């Protein structure tokens, strides 16, 4: 049976970036096994947020590899993501991993896949997982038509996704990184 880690959303605004993930883990198509999973974490000295959708053990393997890439590239998020995607695509062991990652800091949001993709969204909103399209649509609408900050958009969009997607719940973990203000 498939175990799913489901909905992750990242939103960047003028104040910084917020990343939210729901707490549901589903076994197969019908059993919610866990309601309080934490699928959003911080790595690399608390500067980078990562969230996953897919196989949990695979995601943790990727988180560890990604943090090593961040360390070897002095925290350069984009460079580390490209290097991880290259390894993920070419390494026989990593190629079998079934997960997707959203990674973000205060300035950048990146979607990283096992097919070698590193995508920075044009509109500073990205989502992954089975409820990702619901969260993405809600976040884009809120970002375009309200004055809400990134944190509030992420929370509201995740709640909307939880209302629509049976694989997403409203037990939300939220992390934020604020932009540094020039002095």
From TrEMBL:
Origin superkingdom: Bacteria
Subunit architecture: A double ring-shaped homohexamer of HslV is capped on each side by a ring-shaped HslU homohexamer. The assembly of the HslU/HslV complex is dependent on binding of ATP.
Name of the protein in question: ATP-dependent protease subunit HslV
Record's catalysed reaction(s): ATP-dependent cleavage of peptide bonds with broad specificity
SUPFAM superfamilies: N-terminal nucleophile aminohydrolases (Ntn hydrolases)
Location within or outside the cell: Cytoplasm
Active site residues according to the UniProt entry: 6
Binding-site list for Na(+): 162, 165, 168
Functional note: Protease subunit of a proteasome-like degradation complex believed to be a general protein degrading machinery.
GO terms classed as biological process: proteolysis involved in protein catabolic process
